[in-house]
């Protein structure tokens, strides 16, 4: 009988460090290049201060394959502007700024993040894992559904105080997974 090898063996999710700033922004730039190439809405140049704050507050993570960074992402515990004040009262893990190293595309990074976020959510007494993406990117929407996220619907953002500038007037697709505690 064949044994099934863990597709994530050898990968580790750890907090990003201040020394990771150059690779984080390199992956953001590669993500923007991919968005341009495929005609998708573009990420902005994220503020270095925003990312430094996430790193220092231990809300920024990286997936390592040995010493190679496969992916980076951010975690929030509140996101009232995108999810609304009522929904934001539900304890959740919010995933943001997921940038996959092109060498690791197609290797299940999003499924690993989902698995990690559900465990992280359990450990932090959260009820949901939530995320959003551009509302008109049907390909990405279907990808997140294929990764096990439930599509909640679309939301048009008007009041974007506290969010990076690229959110102004955006239509977003919202996703959620229930965490079984």
Protein model, in words:
- With 181 residues, this protein is of the alpha+beta class.
- It has a single domain, classed as Aminopeptidase (3-Layer(aba) Sandwich), CATH 3.40.630.
- It has 6 helices and 7 strands, in the order E-H-H-E-E-H-H-E-H-E-H-E-E.
- It is globular and about 40 Å long.
Summarize the structure.
With 181 residues, the chain is an alpha+beta fold.
Task: Compile the SSE list and pairings.
Blueprint: E1 11-15, H1 21-37, H2 48-56, E2 60-65, E3 68-76, H3 80-83, H4 85-88, E4 92-100, H5 109-123, E5 128-134, H6 138-146, E6 150-156, E7 171-178
Parallel strand pairs: 4-5
Antiparallel strand pairs: 1-2, 2-3, 3-4, 5-7, 6-7
Short key terms for the protein model shown above:
alpha+beta, 181 residues, globular, Aminopeptidase, seven-stranded mixed beta sheet
Task: Decide which structural class fits the backbone.
Answer: alpha+beta
- How many E strands? 7
Order of helices and strands: EHHEEHHEHEHEE
Number of domains: 1
Question: N-to-C terminal Cα separation, in Å?
Answer: 34 Å
Averaged pLDDT: 89
Strand order of the largest sheet: 1-2-3-4-5-7-6
Spans of at least 5 consecutive residues whose pLDDT stays below 50 are none
How large, in whole angstroms, is the Cα Rg? 16 Å
CATH superfamily: Gcn5-related N-acetyltransferase (GNAT)
The CATH architecture term is 3-Layer(aba) Sandwich
């Amino acid at each position: 009988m064949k044994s099934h090898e863990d597709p994530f063996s050898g990968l580790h999710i750890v907090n990003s460090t201040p020394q990771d700033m150059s690779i984080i922004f390199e992956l953001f730039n590669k993500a923007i290049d991919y968005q341009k190439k495929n005609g998708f809405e573009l990420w902005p140049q994220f503020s270095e201060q925003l990312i430094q704050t996430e790193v220092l507050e231990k809300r920024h993570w990286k997936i390592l394959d040995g010493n190679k960074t496969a992916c980076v992402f951010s975690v929030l515990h509140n996101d009232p502007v995108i999810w609304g004040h009522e929904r934001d009262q539900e304890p959740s893990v919010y995933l943001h700024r997921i940038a996959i190293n092109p060498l690791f595309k197609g290797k299940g990074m999003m499924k690993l993040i989902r698995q990690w976020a559900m465990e992280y959510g359990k450990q932090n007494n959260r009820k949901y894992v939530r995320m959003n993406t551009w509302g008109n990117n049907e390909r990405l929407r279907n990808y997140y559904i294929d990764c096990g996220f439930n599509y909640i619907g679309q939301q048009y953002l008007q009041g974007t105080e506290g969010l990076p500038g690229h959110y102004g007037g955006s239509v977003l697709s919202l996703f959620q997974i229930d965490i079984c505690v």
